[in-house]
Design brief:
Layout: H1 3-15, H2 18-25, H3 29-43, E1 48-50, E2 55-57, H4 59-87, E3 91-97, H5 101-114, E4 118-123, E5 134-137, E6 147-161, E7 181-184, H6 190-201, E8 207-211, H7 215-223, E9 228-232, H8 237-240, E10 244-247, E11 253-261, H9 269-288
Parallel strand pairs: 3-4, 3-5, 7-8, 7-9
Antiparallel strand pairs: 1-2, 5-11, 6-9, 6-10, 6-11
Helix pairs in contact: 1-2, 1-3, 1-4, 2-3, 5-9
Length: 290
């Protein structure tokens, strides 16, 4: 039984969506479906009940799922332990982190506990000097590196002050924002550019009252009632959840988070392993939003 089949089964079993599971593993949907069918044939049981618009685990699948989860956890732990002892990792990694800083901080902390010999230099501004071993940012960085993957497709939401006219809405339409003032981190920010394009299609140009690349200052301007803000569904929530009401759009809009690197740098064992840590960390977020 191939290990990858078990990983595919586990992802499909968690998400109950073959298309999304295929995207996470970077393979076509037909290949994912074929792999799951092959695993079922090998085991001699059906693991999933399939209908036109629904996928669910069978009783056999429900029994198999926790055992696969435990097996993968033990295997992944063993691999990390072996890598740690085999390579005695050390050295320095230079990171440019423009998106999901808290997620990256958590990942760096976890990695540092496993591999204390690796040191990090971390940069958070577009103007910071390269080169970098790894960059987390928007698709505009693609020309600077020879390799990249999409880590996360993240919903963009609106945050308004308590007491705002839209605060009681369960969802908000783009047209409702024509006369609002916006506080943003940058006019070149991917999130704002996406919203700006959607607003243009709706017949208006967003009125930007404040531009601040310091998120904590941006939150203070928001608290002072100087405008409303756009936030990513996950990465800015802790910054705004106590300051206002977070509302999804009627027609969801998304930004993408990418990871960039130069392939020749993966010969550095610490980078190759940290890159895998980052992929795993963002995979958890992606699975959590399905």
């Amino acid at each position: 039984m191939e290990l990858m089949r078990l990983r595919y089964f586990y992802t499909v079993g968690k998400m109950l969506n073959i298309s999304q599971a295929a995207k996470i593993h970077g393979i076509p949907q037909p290949a994912m479906s074929k792999t799951i069918s092959s695993l079922e044939s090998e085991l001699g049981v059906k693991l999933f009940d399939r209908s036109k618009n629904h996928l669910s685990l069978t009783k056999a699948g429900q029994l198999f799922m926790p055992e696969v989860e435990k097996a993968l956890e033990h295997l992944d732990y063993g691999i990390r332990e072996m890598e740690s002892k085999k390579n005695a990792l050390s050295g320095d990694l230079r990171l440019s982190i423009m998106y999901h800083r808290n997620t990256c901080i958590h990942c760096i902390d976890r990695f540092s506990k496993d591999y204390p010999g690796v040191n990090f230099s971390i940069y958070n501004n577009w103007a910071d000097p390269g080169p970098f071993d790894l960059c987390i940012g928007g698709p505009d960085r693609v020309s600077q590196y020879d390799s990249s993957i999409s880590l996360l497709r993240e919903e963009i939401r609106l945050v308004v002050p308590f007491g705002h006219r839209l605060a009681n809405n369960s969802k908000v339409a783009i047209d409702d924002l024509k006369n609002e003032k916006f506080i943003i981190s940058s006019t070149s920010n991917q999130m704002f550019q996406i919203f700006q394009a959607v607003a243009k299609d709706a017949g208006f140009i967003p009125n930007v009252s404040i531009v601040s690349n310091d998120l904590y200052c941006l939150r203070q301007y928001f608290d002072l009632g100087m405008g409303i803000a756009l936030i990513p569904r996950f990465s800015w929530v802790t910054l705004f959840k106590d300051s206002g009401v977070i509302i999804p759009f009627e027609s969801p809009i998304y930004r993408t988070v990418h990871m960039f690197w130069d392939m020749h740098n993966l010969s550095k064992p610490s980078l190759a392993l940290f890159k895998q840590y980052m992929e795993d960390e963002f995979r958890k977020i992606s699975e959590g939003q399905s």
